[in-house]
Specification:
The protein contains 5 helices and 2 strands. It has about 110 residues and is mostly helical. Strands 1-2 form a two-stranded parallel sheet. Helix 2 crosses helix 3. The protein is globular, with a radius of gyration of 14 Å. The mean pLDDT is about 85. It binds a DNA duplex (13 and 13 nucleotides) through helix 2, helix 3, strand 2 and helix 4.
DNA sequence: GGGTTGACGCAGA
DNA sequence: TTCTGCGCCAACC
C-alpha cells in the first residue's frame, strides 16, 4: 500500500503489530523482515520511541531471549510479566525459549519485500 | 547537514 | 554461560 509511509519505522511498527499473542520476536528478526537485517539497533531505538503507543513492544526481545530496556528499571519487569501472562515461560536466567515461543514471521511476504 | 545516541548482533576470551 | 569490544543503521538534536 502506498497510502502509508514506507519508512523503516512504519515497517517495524507493522511487523510488531503482527506478532501473535503468546509469541515473541527478536530485534534482529524484525529488522530483517523490515528489509534491514543489520538494523537491529535501529529497531531498539524505534521500540523506545514508540513506548506508550498501542504496539505490543513487549513481544520484541533480543536474540538471546532476554528482555532489556537499558535505562528504565521497571520496564523489563513489566515486559516479562506481560509475556508470562501470555504464556511465555522464562527460565532461571530470565531467558525465554525462543525455539518454543519465537515468532516464525508473517505468513506472507511483506509488501515492501 | 553532521554528530550523538541506543531496548542489538556477532565473534572472541 | 557471561562479559567485552566492534560494527551496523535509523532517529533525534
Amino acid at each position: 500500500m502506498s497510502t502509508q509511509d514506507d519508512t523503516f519505522r512504519t515497517r517495524v511498527y507493522a511487523l510488531v503489530e503482527m506478532i501473535p499473542h503468546g509469541q515473541v520476536a527478536t530485534y534482529g528478526q524484525i529488522a530483517a523482515l523490515a528489509g534491514q537485517s543489520r538494523a537491529a539497533r535501529a529497531v531498539g531505538t524505534l521500540m523506545r520511541l514508540c513506548d506508550g503507543d498501542a504496539l505490543p513492544w513487549h513481544r520484541v526481545i533480543n536474540a538471546q531471549g532476554r528482555v532489556s530496556t537499558g535505562g528504565d528499571v521497571y520496564r523489563p519487569t513489566i515486559q516479562r510479566q506481560m509475556l508470562e501472562s501470555e504464556g511465555v515461560a522464562f527460565d532461571a536466567a530470565e531467558r525465554c525459549d525462543l525455539d518454543a515461543v519465537g515468532w516464525d514471521g508473517p505468513s506472507e511476504a511483506m509488501p515492501w519485500e
